[in-house]
Amino acid sequence: MKKSLAVVLILTLVVVLAGCGNGGEGTSADSKDTLTFVWYPNESGADLKDAREEFGRIIEEATGKKVEHQTTTDYIIAIEAITNGNADLAFMGPQGYIEAHTKNEKVLPLVVPSGESGTLEDAVYYSWLSVKKGEEEAYKSGDQFAIDEIAGKKFSFVSNSSTSGFKVPSSGIITYFSGQEQYKDLTEEDLLMGGDDQFFKEVLFGGSHQGSAVNLLTGKADVAAFCDTCVSNYVELTEGEANKPGAVYTVKDDAAEPFNTLSGEQFSLISVTPVLNSPFVVNTDTVSEEDIAKLEELFTSEKVTNNDKIFLPVDSEASGLFKKKSGDEKFLPVEDEWFNPIRELSGL
């Protein structure tokens, strides 16, 4: 009798544990009633709360599921959440997506924002290397900007899981300097640590693109890597041509945190590199095929394309994730292979 009871208890325990998959939800992808959306630090600020909530609202409307937002202070937290199934959806950079997909092939891209043409042909944003206004002349070779003088400086990256805030700039630095005898064996690891005997005097990580820009503007770094789209809500072009070396950007008078104490501060671009646009991704193991189909239909619909809380109008002064320039911008579906150029940089 005791033996039979033990067997029953063991079998019961197995059934209970089997029902606790998918991050402890106890539900299958088909039956779960809540979708968790995890956000990078760059999009986790209070100034973007309305944008996050609008995405939640339209997803709830399309799927009939409740949406919970998980904001973060670290790239790794967001990447691990979507990888492990603790989050179902995420908006992340190409490098973060590739890291997540490498760990869990069930994490796949859903859509990316198009370029100004409304196609994938120009679906890019820009990785900047910037210095404080007034110091840019030291980074010129003749009439052209060059990065020779960044060696030995205090440098700020975003996170080593950031595409435009680490992977792209570090690859560019290595490519540029490895042609010089002194740096012929330069590696990515060499750029992570500062010191008198290292490539950089000091290396900082901002934790977000905003944080990296603040490191520059507060004098903690001499040169900083960050992207155009993540600081566009806080700064405005005041000299030169947008996304071109020599362009000068100024912090707006009414800039939100963390730029609220830096109004009027300026920086100049010394290097600009295009980067593939960032994807919205889905964990296909925790979200049902039916809901994935609904999400793709939603994101690519005219209703979303014309939603001025998703794509801010050209003349809007509001803070948002996306802002129209031509009026043709929209979300477009992409496959995993679209990110292969970034994957090649990563070696993943």
In short:
Helix content is 30%, strand content 22%. It is α/β, with parallel strands linked by helices and 348 residues long. The N and C termini lie far apart (56 Å).
Explained architecture:
Helices cover 30% and strands 22% of the residues. It has helices at 2-18, 21-24, 49-63, 75-84, 94-103, 163-177, 209-217, 228-231, 289-299, 302-305, 340-346, and strands at 34-39, 66-70, 89-91, 107-113, 124-132, 140-141, 144-145, 154-157, 202-205, 223-227, 235-239, 248-251, 266-276, 280-283, 311-312, 322-323, 331-333. The model is unreliable at 1-26 (pLDDT under 50).
Topology:
Layout (H helix, E strand, L loop, with lengths): L1 H17 L2 H4 L9 E6 L9 H15 L2 E5 L4 H10 L4 E3 L2 H10 L3 E7 L10 E9 L7 E2 L2 E2 L8 E4 L5 H15 L24 E4 L3 H9 L5 E5 H4 L3 E5 L8 E4 L14 E11 L3 E4 L5 H11 L2 H4 L5 E2 L9 E2 L7 E3 L6 H7 L2
Parallel strand pairs: 1-2, 1-3, 8-9, 8-10, 15-16
Antiparallel strand pairs: 3-14, 4-14, 4-17, 5-10, 5-13, 6-7, 11-12, 12-13
Helix pairs in contact: 3-9, 4-5
